[in-house]
Amino acid sequence: MRTIRRIVLRINSPSDMQAKAVLEEAGIKFKRGDITVELDEQDPTWPRAERICLEFDLIHDHRYSVFTDDERASAQYLEISPRMSDENPRPWRNLERLKEVCDTREMCPTCFKGARQIAPLRLKKAPRWGEHWLFNLIWYFDSPRWEMPPHLNFTCVREDVYMQVLEPAGVPCQPLLLDGSETVVPGVVQIQPSQSAQIATAGLPLTPCESCGGITYNQPWYGFRPAVLGATAPLVESAEWFGVHKRLGEHLLMVSQALYRQLRELDKAELFIPCAEI
Ligand SMILES: [Zn+2]
Q1: Distance 208 CA to ligand 1 centre (A)
Q2: C-alpha torsion sign, points 234, 235, 240, 245
Q3: Which residues contact residue 103 at a Cβ distance below 8 angstroms, ignoring those fewer than 6 apart?
Q4: Residue 117 Cα, ligand 1 centroid: separation in angstroms?
Q5: Architecture field, domain 2-66
Q6: What predicted TM-score, i.e. pTM, was given to this entire model?
Q7: Do residues 226 and 197 lie in contact, with contact meaning Cβ atoms separated by under 8 Å?
Q8: How far is the CA of 65 from the centre of ligand 1 (A)?
Q9: Tens digits of per-residue pLDDT, 36-72?
């Protein structure tokens, strides 16, 4: 695994432009006209770059990890992280419409934990897949209490991929309906993880909800994902919630090694991130 650090400068900030000059003097090369540069943490120039970032108070905690095929091939579980999302139909900002799809009686009004899906999801139109086969339907909700709005998140997959790989693995699914009608959206199904498993959360930063006390762990952005405990199903979701800042989290979605081997043959557009071993 290599972890890549990304330095991002604010284009109109004199201080950042001064930092850029100092970084370039230290041998860090920006492409012509660029305001971002990526460095491997193993690169000998990174420690110096990090000191300059601290000195100039740059926001420099943008990073991601790159894994080898061997690391992916030896992980028991891998997180799948859709690269495509859709939030239509937008009227889901309206809580009354949410009740058409979710039982909200036990839902926390602040963080939205506890919403239970009771009816098919609605889509405005069939997804345009491009090179993708997986997408998240995300419904954002306005709330003045939040810096970022709470949201609910559902995982959907291209129907042919479902039929070819996920159905034989016993992953349950249900259809989606076009908004405003009872017509099934062609070519897509919502998938349901068949197991909820706990994650090794020791040491992970967390935020409790001020209303219900429910815990949201900080979304891990780099490195191996935390280990999954006691998982046996091909498609597993974390029992815990993960999120960013005060935003409502979501359950991490993970595939077994056997399922990963089939899915990676179909398409490499989705990102598979290996989970740590226990
Ligand atoms: Zn809550």
Answers
A1: 8
A2: positive
A3: 115, 116, 117, 118
A4: 17
A5: 2-Layer Sandwich (3.30)
A6: 0.86
A7: no
A8: 31
A9: 899 999 999 999 999 999 998 886 678 889 999 999 9
